[in-house]
Design brief:
This protein is mostly helical. Helix content is 66%, strand content 1%. It has one domain: Ammonium transporter fold. The protein starts with a helix and ends with a helix.
């Protein structure tokens, strides 16, 4: 089996090279659309900002693990930028945004090898920017989602098996959820689900996959550890916070009132969540910590993501506070169980995303975003939107958790997921990459 697996990279390069020759994707200049140069400039910037979130996540996670696993943990985020990009260019963009097949998945042949992307009409929900720019922006969301999962199985997963798993995760979990939520013909979109920038698509999918991974891979042999570099965590938080403005404000797909609102609500929720985490820790008798402040800030960013373009600033402050307290409580609960979610991905990203989805159904206001045709939130006396959000939450949770558990089993059958006890003791930096700090 090992010898056969070692041939896969060579075969991949050979097939990919042939595809590049067969499908050069030469533009024909047939698109006569007049674009908005200001929107293009902003979306180019937002695209770069979202990409820097993945290296930010690498530092965020890398600083939390044992020193002997820092490089491996950070590389697991970095490799997503390469692996997911190649999949996206070959068939991934079509799988998410191609012609809908039953509202569940896109037609991967529509934009195969990015054919017709450079000269096609713009995406209907982003009419002022070229389709290629929309594709590049959405690619960055697809990159960071599987990277988020890595914190759950840090310090005990084989690198090659991890790469295989994220390929399967993108195809069978991320792509269907993104299509169903963001494609105009997607089943969740047509149901009226509101997810401005990825509460369901990004954070819930990654959170539930992380929960499944922590259960499937079981506990580490040495579950207690000291963070390698808390300064890395702080640096990573800064990069994530910066990039998140592109993540949320960029999801308006242009320069205008909505992008400004999303930027404001993002800042408010994150700041409130950081303070709430520190204060809640103090209430429990703990000292204010850099780690707690950083985790709280990220939880607030997660929770505001689905609501960023639908709620007011005061309500975004409340979303940050509530999500921080709830995630803090779930982290505490998790520590009393046998579930070894190494860096608490599920309590922070999964639960944070779910809280954000629920509170979107509570606080969404049509005056903030007239494009919201589903209705106002529960606080305004309407129940329809809240019911829709709850249906999406339950459905996406079952799908992401059950599907991830199945993909973990498939991956494990093909290439064992767990490193040996000796490799774990030695550290993944040496055992998987022959490198060290």
């Amino acid at each position: 089996m090992a010898n056969k697996l070692s041939r896969i990279p060579f075969l991949f390069i050979l097939v990919f090279t042939l595809l590049c020759f067969l499908f050069p994707s030469v533009p024909h200049n047939s698109d006569k659309t007049v674009y908005n140069p200001t929107d293009i400039a902003w979306m180019l910037t937002a695209t770069a900002m979202v990409l820097i979130m993945t290296p930010g996540l690498a530092f965020f996670y890398g600083g939390m693990v044992n020193k002997k696993n820092v490089i491996s943990t950070m590389l697991q985020s970095f490799i997503c930028m390469s692996v997911v990009t190649v999949i996206w260019f070959v068939f991934g963009f079509g799988l998410v945004f191609g012609k809908s097949v039953g509202g569940i998945i896109g037609d991967p042949s529509e934009f195969f090898m990015m054919q017709n992307v450079l000269d096609s009409k713009p995406w209907e929900l982003a009419p002022t920017i070229p389709l290629a720019l929309f594709a590049m922006y959405q690619l960055k969301f697809a990159i960071i989602t599987p990277a988020l999962i890595t914190g759950a199985f840090a310090e005990r997963i084989r690198f090659i098996s991890y790469v295989f798993f994220i390929c399967l995760f993108f195809i069978f979990i991320y792509a269907p959820l993104a299509h169903a939520t963001w494609h105009p013909e997607g089943i969740l979109f047509k149901l009226g689900v509101l997810d401005f920038a990825g509460g369901t698509v990004v954070h819930m999918s990654a959170g539930w996959a992380a929960f499944a991974s922590a259960i499937y891979l079981k506990r580490r042999n040495e579950p207690n550890h000291n963070p390698a570099r808390i300064t890395y965590v702080m640096l990573g938080t800064g990069l994530l916070w910066f990039g998140w403005f592109g993540f949320n404000a960029g999801s308006a797909f242009g320069v205008g009132r909505l992008s400004v609102i999303a930027l404001c609500t993002t800042m408010a929720a994150s700041a409130a969540a950081a303070i709430a985490w520190v204060f809640f820790d103090a209430f429990k008798g703990r000292k204010p910590s850099a780690m707690g402040t950083c985790i709280g800030a990220v939880v607030g960013l997660v929770a505001i993501t689905p609501a960023a373009g639908f709620v007011t600033i005061p309500h975004s402050l409340l979303i940050g506070i509530l999500s921080s307290v709830i995630s803090n409580l779930v982290v505490e609960w998790r520590t009393r169980t046998s579930i070894d979610d190494t860096l608490d991905v599920f309590p922070c990203h999964g639960v944070g995303g779910m809280v954000g989805m629920v509170l979107t159904g509570v606080f969404a206001n049509q005056s903030i975003n007239p494009g919201n045709v589903t209705g106002n939130g529960l606080i305004f006396g309407e129940t329809h939107l809240f019911g829709v959000q709850m249906i999406a939450l339950v459905g996406a949770s079952v799908f992401a958790f059950g599907g991830s558990m199945l993909l973990l089993k498939v991956t494990d059958l093909i290439s064992p997921l767990r490193v040996s006890e000796e490799e774990e003791r030695l550290g993944l930096d040496i055992s998987q990459h022959d490198e060290s700090l």
